[in-house]
TrEMBL record:
Superkingdom, natural source: Bacteria
Entry-linked InterPro entries: Molybdate_resp_trans_reg, WH-like_DNA-bd_sf, WH_DNA-bd_sf
Record protein name field: LysR family transcriptional regulator
Source species of the chain: Wohlfahrtiimonas larvae
Amino acid sequence: MPNKKETAILVRPRIYIGDNATIGPGKIELLKALQTESSITAAAKYLKIPYKKAWNLLDALNKTFSQPVFESTVGGKGGGKTVLTPIGMQLIKSYEALEIKLNECVEDELLDIKKLTKN
């Protein structure tokens, strides 16, 4: 997410790909949590969402792209691990760059909207 300025008002885009696929702030935050936590369970707990929801969101992302955005290894001595693939890391980077550009482009409009609020 872009640095919060005094406005505390931001554009968080949702990208529609075809009729069935979307990428938005929730999926990006989940990917970032997964990158940090290396576990779907831990990422879901960190974001305070059910494991099943996290899995469904990640599965939807994997089905959207030509290659997986994450890969998991099953348990064993050290336990399982989930890592982002290069596509998953690029998705975060591209989304964050888009978010920054959008917020820079609409800064005046965001300030106008902010002036209309009670804060």
